[in-house]
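Hi Y.,

Following your request, here is the sequence exactly as I used it, all 231 residues.
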Amino acid sequence: MHSRRNDKMSESNIEDEIAKGTTTIGLLCKDAVILATERRATMGNIIASPEAKKIYPIDRYIGATTAGSVGDAQMMMRLLTRLAALHQHTHEEKHMTVQHCANQAADILTQEFRARNPLHMVLIVGGVDMTGGGRIYSTDPAGGIIEDSKFISTGSGSSFVYGVLEDRYKKDMSIEEGVDLAIRSISVAMKRDSASGGTIQVVTITKENGFVQIDPEYIMDKIEQFELARK
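Below is the corresponding structure, written out as tokens. Let me know if you'd prefer a different format.
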């Protein structure tokens, strides 16, 4: 992630700028949605933080990963969190669906893009609906939205991530298998992509437990296991 530039840019230029940093993943398992990112934040050639927050809870059953401008991402997360709370308040405590949340994000991005004040960011919105199971969506800076039935990756390390995911992803993976695959994929990107680094953050979202952070020590242990297996 990076600081935002104030000049007006085309959609393609914005996407090129966003692609210079961050690696994020959303993937579907049998009983969960997994969200994962590395945590390096950059300002040009400077590493601003190795521990930047890039996964946010929107409500108990929905989360999002962010790539792009830190300020734009934080503003978007505040808006989506408030909209989710308002929806629950006005709909007899029913949680917003994942699709509705992704559409809300896309609408905000479209409005800002058409106002010639585009938000320099892309999202992966993922979560579980009480009736429809897990769902994941990606958005672009112009408000485009795409749903995937397996996995999504964004940011500069995504080409490395897709290589791992295409090779190792299986339909109906367990939560543990999904978490391990996300860690493996992000760690590969961190080795090959200079803009990705720091530590790794992983979240699971299930109907039973909602939005849950994976213990950082578990993540470090898995990275060490993967390293030993390569030797």
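Confidence is low (pLDDT under 50) at residues 3-9.

Thanks again,
Q.
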